[in-house]
C-alpha cells in the first residue's frame, strides 16, 4: 500500500484525534494519507487510495445503543448505499464508552457495510474505549501493524 484514504465521522473530536494519530504514524512510514469527514464525502471517495480506512464512534441514537455516529449512518445509508468496493481493502476504527453494553459496536456495523459492499477487511479493527487521550501508543502500534500487513 502506498496510499490510504480515510473516511471518518467525528462529532466530539475523539475520532478525528485518533485518525490524526494514525495519519501521522502512517505518513512517518512513507504512506500517502488523505482523509475526509463523511459529511463532506461522496461515493467517489471510496475509489481514492490503494486502501481505505473507515472510522467512527459508537452512538446511542436512532434505536438501541451501539449505533454508528449519525453522520456515518447518514453517509452509508445515503450517498454510499449502492457503492461497490470491488475487493478494496478496508481497515476499521471504532470508538466507544465502557459505560454501555455495546462498547465500540460501530466497528461491527462498519464491518457489515464493507462486506456487503464487496470490500475486504484489512487486519483487526482498532477499538478505542473511553477517552482516546493517553492511548496514543496503542493507536501508533495498530498503525504500525497495519503497514506490515499490506
Poorly predicted regions are none
Give the helix proportion (percent range): 25-40%
CATH architectural group: 3-Layer(aba) Sandwich
CATH superfamily annotation: Flavodoxin domain
Overview of the structural elements:
The protein has one domain (3-149): 3-Layer(aba) Sandwich (Rossmann fold), CATH 3.40.50.360. Strands 1, 2, 3, 4, 5, 6 and 7 form a 7-stranded mixed β-sheet that branches. The chain is globular and about 40 Å long. The protein has 150 residues and is of the alpha/beta class. The chain has helices at 14-28, 70-76, 106-116, 136-149; strands at 3-9, 32-37, 51-59, 67-68, 89-96, 120-121, 126-129. The protein starts with a strand and ends with a helix. Strand 1 (3-9), helix 1 and strand 2 (32-37) form a beta-alpha-beta unit.
Concise overview:
The chain is α/β, with parallel strands linked by helices and 150 residues long. It contains four helices and seven strands.
